[in-house]
Amino acid sequence: GITIYSGSAYRSYSYQLALYNRYVSVDGKIKAETYSARAGYSEHQTGLATDIMNANLGYISSSDKEYDWLINNSYKYGFVLRYPKGKEDITGYIYEEWHFRYLGEKLATELYNLDITYDEYVARKEQKMN
After folding, report:
1. Is the dihedral angle over the CA atoms 122, 99, 46, 31 positive or is it negative?
2. Which residues are catalytic?
């Protein structure tokens, strides 16, 4: 009963550079870096991130039924909400309810069950290695 689209998936270096530079020119570097990665650092450049759109071709928001479905089911398909609300100090980015990252079903399910971000997972793995 829902329709979702991938609105922005893979981005080339040059596209990400232009996007980032545009944001910096509008909001300044400090603010822009809370919502946009520099070229060479964007998850979109890996081909593993996508921004999800609804049936009206607008980016989903937390008030959309598509969002609820994704939060409760995307991990089954290997995706996680990459920048959740309340985790800005951990992820380094503002809450982006539309930005999902592919991690694979096993890892996405583990993060879902632990209720942690990908950043928290990586930090825990690094602690275990040290």
Report:
1. negative
2. 96
